[in-house]
Design brief:
4 helices; six-stranded antiparallel barrel; 270 residues; elongated; 37% helix; alpha+beta; Thrombin, subunit H; six-stranded antiparallel beta barrel
């Protein structure tokens, strides 16, 4: 309290001058129609700008909850579409969907290493398990490598250990897609025969030879084609997913994967 009194005494003349200015300004505005109108107009503008800024700040802090709500809604829609597609394909009313979608959020990630990873806020208790596909709204993100009760570790496409089957959408030629450990924005589609016509801008999607990823999921577009090898092309692909900004993903479970693997394993040993 003493400090406040000391401060007032120290700046008493300045404070008195400010008070007189406020009184004079108030008298001018109150007794003159023109000044009152101008003041009222400017006050409205100022109040509007303050309200706008307040609303923008409030909306910014609500973005996370809004995005989470949209991700949940999109996941539900994907599951409904998958169930509808399964009934349409089989013409059986009670047929089970081939794929089930789970919504998750990336809570930790790297993009500047050769062995990058993603951590998701979902685990076994949420239905996740190893070898499940992970996709963002823009396209393929990676594959679940390990899970705990509440979390999952994902090997993204920008990990040198990641190899998935991809194809050129325009002609269905397929090959392994593998990252070279350099730029997180690009990966490479290999083993495409030299005679195949491939152009910059062509779309690269998941192939039907993957038992984990649904066929036709967006991976990226052709950036350039290297024809130095006499037998195969080396196709540089600009990835659809920006791994530096990845937040919400869908984890995809192939409900028929176990049956397929068991049958293939059985015939492999016959």
């Amino acid at each position: 309290m003493k400090d406040i009194i000391r401060l007032i005494v120290k700046y008493q003349f300045t404070l008195f001058f400010i008070l007189l200015e406020i009184i004079c300004f108030s008298l001018v505005v109150r007794n003159n129609d023109y000044q009152r109108a101008i003041f009222s107009q400017q006050s409205s503008v100022f109040a509007g700008e303050v309200a706008k800024a307040t609303s923008e700040v409030r909306n910014y802090f609500r973005l996370r909850s809004i995005n989470e709500g949209l991700a949940r809604e999109n996941t539900a829609l994907k599951n409904r579409l998958e169930a509808y597609a399964s009934r349409t394909d089989t013409l059986v009313a009670d047929s089970a969907a081939t794929y089930t979608y789970y919504q998750a959020r990336v809570i930790n990630a790297t993009y500047n290493r050769t062995k990058n990873y993603l951590t998701l806020n979902r685990g076994e208790r949420d239905g996740l398990r190893k070898e499940m596909a992970v996709c963002a709204p823009e396209g393929v993100a990676g594959l679940v490598q390990d899970v705990s009760e509440r979390f999952a570790i994902v090997i993204p496409l920008i990990n040198t250990s990641s190899i998935i089957s991809a194809k050129i959408k325009q002609n269905d030629y397929y090959g392994p897609l593998q990252w070279d450990g350099d730029d997180y924005r690009y990966s490479y589609l290999n083993d495409i025969p030299y005679h195949v016509q491939v152009n910059a801008g062509d779309t690269i999607v998941t192939s039907n030879y993957s038992s984990i990823f649904p066929e036709g999921l967006m991976i990226g577009v052709v950036e350039s084609v290297d024809k130095k090898d006499a037998n195969f092309l080396r196709i540089k692909v600009r990835l659809a997913v920006d791994f530096r900004r990845l937040t919400y993903v869908y984890v995809i479970d192939n409900n028929t994967l176990e049956e397929q693997q068991q049958l293939e394993e059985q015939n492999r040993h016959e």
